[in-house]
Amino acid sequence: MSGKIIVIDLEATCWEGNPPPGEISEIIEIGICVLDQATGVIDKNRGILIKPVHSAISPFCTQLTTITPDLIGKEGISFEEALHILGKEYQAGQHAWASYGMYDKNMLQKQCALRHIPYPMHHKHINVKELFRQVTRIPRKVGMSQALDILGYPLQGTHHRGGDDAFNIARILRYCLNHSEAAIE
Ligand code: AMP
Ligand code: MG
Asked: Cross-referenced InterPro entries, in alphabetical order (predicted)?
């Protein structure tokens, strides 16, 4: 194993069904932590809260994520500022990155395109959901909490909060890297 991998988990505005007329699902939290492949240390577990501009935090969204309109009002920054942090503090363009499934990569690409902001991430993306299936040889892909159950790892923190999800995903990724030949360059 070598190098650092940035683990990302996004939270977004959501509703029980489709968005209300005029609203779209937008990123409201970028959860992030860094896995050092050489040492196995998971560092900088953090959630960057983001103010949505084309949608509101619904009661359903608060119920799922614990993120309230009040919290976003107090601590949220713009999507542009959040991406700036990824580039400056995490050198996101220079390290491989990982997420659980393809949702986070697709969402990030879509929102960057919509806002005409350069996509900040490295081209090397690891789908931890798929990697976990391969390494454990289970017949089908499972959700993050089920993967933790399979490993006997208690879920740490609050499920559906970006920072905590990113940390738990990093633990699954570390298991995968320790149980496969591949190092991620
Ligand atoms: P997660 O990383 O599993 O916390 O999910 C990321 C985002 O997907 C959430 O912030 C929601 O926008 C959406 N999402 C996840 N689960 C649900 C659900 N059961 N119903 C609606 N949206 C969801
Ligand atoms: Mg999440």
From this structure: 3-5_Exoribonuclease (IPR051274), ERI-1_3'hExo-like (IPR047201), Ribonucl_H (IPR013520), RNaseH-like_sf (IPR012337), RNaseH_sf (IPR036397)
% helix / strand / coil in the chain, to the nearest 5? 40, 20, 40
What residue spans define the domains of the chain?
Answer: 4-178
Whole-prediction pTM: 0.96
| Top-confidence residue, 121 or 183 | 121
Helix (H, G, I), strand (E, B) or coil at 142: coil
CA of 182 to the centre of ligand 1 (A): 30
| pLDDT of amino acid 184 | 62
Q: How far is residue 113's CA from residue 121's CA, in Å, rounded to a whole number?
A: 13
SS3 88: helix
**Statement: residue 98 has pLDDT above 70:** yes
Q: Which fold has domain 4-178?
A: Nucleotidyltransferase; domain 5 (3.30.420)
DSSP class of residue 155? Answer: P
Q: Is the CB of 65 under 6 A from ligand 1?
A: yes
Beta-sheet pairing, 27-36 with 4-12: antiparallel
Average pLDDT in the 130-150 region? 96
